[in-house]
Every structure is written in C-alpha cells, then in structure tokens.
Write a structure and sequence with these properties.
Nucleotidyltransferase, domain 5, alpha/beta, 3-stranded antiparallel beta sheet, GIY-YIG endonuclease
C-alpha cells in the first residue's frame, strides 16, 4: 500500500506520469538524469499531482489510465487533488467486539462508473482493525478517528485538496453539526451532567476537523444494488468485507473456545 502515482510538469511544459515508492528520491533521479529516459533533454520542474495508498498493481493500472488522458484531462486532474475516506464497522454485541475498517482513495477513484468498481481491489486496499470491549456507536467514532489520524500521518500534504469522509453512521454524520452544542456543554450529558461516554473521541474528532477541514457524507448502508452510485457501490464493497472480517474473527473465537481444555 505504499506506491504512489505522480505527475510532473516538465521544463518544456509537458507532463510526465510515473509510479514510485519514494517520490522525493524519484524526483531527484529524474533531475539528475538517472531516472526515466523521458528526462533526457528536459528537466522536471514541479510535482503537480500525487496519489498515495496504492499497491504495485493498482498503481500500474492508474498510471496507464492517466497516460491515456489528454493534456487537458491531466491539467484538470492536477488542479483537483483530493481524497475520499470510507469508514465502516461491524459489531458482535454479545461478545462486545467488532471490526472497524477504512478505505483511503484519491477522489478521482469515485469518478469511475459503478460497474467498474472491483470488490477485489477494494479488499486489497482496505485497512482493517479488530477491537474488543466496544459498542456500535463507540466503534463508529473510534474507526473514523483512527482513519483520519492515518490519513493525516500518511497521505495529507500541503495542497492535497479536499477530504470527504463517507459513512453510514448517523452519529458520525451528525458530529460536525453537533459540535457547538457538545462544546457548549463541555461534553456533559444533558440528563445526568456527567461526561459523555465518548467525550474523548468527540474531542479528537473535532481536533482533526480543525486540522484537515473535511466534510462528512452520509451514505445508505444497505441501499438496493440497482440504486447505487459509485460512492454507494464502493461503500457496499467495504461493508461486505467488514462483515466478512467479523465473521472470520467470530469463527476463530468459537474455535478457540471449543478447543479449550475443561476446567
């Protein structure tokens, strides 16, 4: 997941598209003549586009797509860099455990047609975490905070562009609107005047909102397949993978319990 797809504006005003695991090193190689043959007779001027979070396979596929674009298309791409962050959870309330996951993709990923979205590619990009001692609401906020922190540390750069967070959680979708009220009450419950159970998570969510300036988009978690736009199709794939991961964990726990010696 550490491959980048990049576009460099060259000294002759042309665009060069490539892939790498270390963009700074690759740019220096191009500038010194030890990189691509394309830079014989021209120099790299500026990195104008960068997509991170790819596998080697998906990076090669995306590189081919960009190379097939017109100059106008590449210019538009370079001026509209942004990311989409898709989060989802699945919880076993009896065991009080659950699985949270996030998918970070360039915003351009959601410009594809719904039919072209490949669940196997989604599964390959998905980052999954198992969490014990949690509930649905808590895990929903835990997961989006974890995903935002990962995005901030691994993908966010000056000029990266707008971040959109997609979730089917009503709690997550409403947090930005509830901010004034929650902060006005110092994150205390209206009824008991005690600190809210998830107060620390809410505070961290708002800190990340200040740092990243994202917007949250509510998706229908179980919309009928034929009504899916691309964002819903992607979320549906994420949802299926998360449920699959929770089932696998449940099977492992059941197997471990069945194999335990009698006391």
């Amino acid at each position: 997941m550490n491959w980048h797809v990049y576009i460099i504006l060259c000294s002759d005003d042309s665009f060069y598209t490539g892939i790498t695991t270390e963009i700074e090193r690759r740019f220096i190689q191009h500038a010194s003549g030890r990189g691509a043959k394309y830079f014989r007779g021209r120099q790299p001027s500026q990195l104008v586009y960068l997509e991170s979070g790819h596998t080697r396979s998906s990076a090669g596929k995306r590189e081919a797509e960009i190379k097939g674009m017109t100059r106008a298309g590449k210019s538009l791409l370079a001026s509209s860099v942004g990311y989409a962050l898709v989060t989802d959870v699945s919880v076993n309330p009896q065991r009080k455990c659950g699985v949270g996951a996030y998918l970070a993709v360039p915003a351009s990923f959601l410009e594809a047609t719904p039919e072209s979205i490949d669940r196997a590619e989604i599964a390959e990009r998905l980052v999954v975490r198992r969490v014990e001692g949690t509930s649905s609401t808590k895990l929903e906020v835990q997961t989006v905070v974890w995903a935002l922190e990962a995005y901030k540390n691994e993908l966010h750069r000056p000029g990266t562009g707008r971040l959109r967070v997609y979730s089917d959680s009503q709690c997550v979708a409403g947090l930005l609107e509830r901010r004034a009220g929650l902060e006005g009450r110092s994150f205390l419950s209206k009824r008991t005047q005690q600190p809210l159970v998830n107060a620390d998570l809410y505070r961290r969510f708002y800190e990340l909102a200040d740092d990243l300036g994202f917007e949250v988009i509510k998706v229908a978690g179980h919309a009928r397949s034929r009504s899916h736009d691309t964002a819903h199709r992607v979320f549906s794939c994420v949802d299926k993978e998360v449920r699959k991961a929770l089932t696998l964990w449940g099977d492992e726990l059941a197997g471990a319990h069945a194999g335990a010696p009698l006391q």
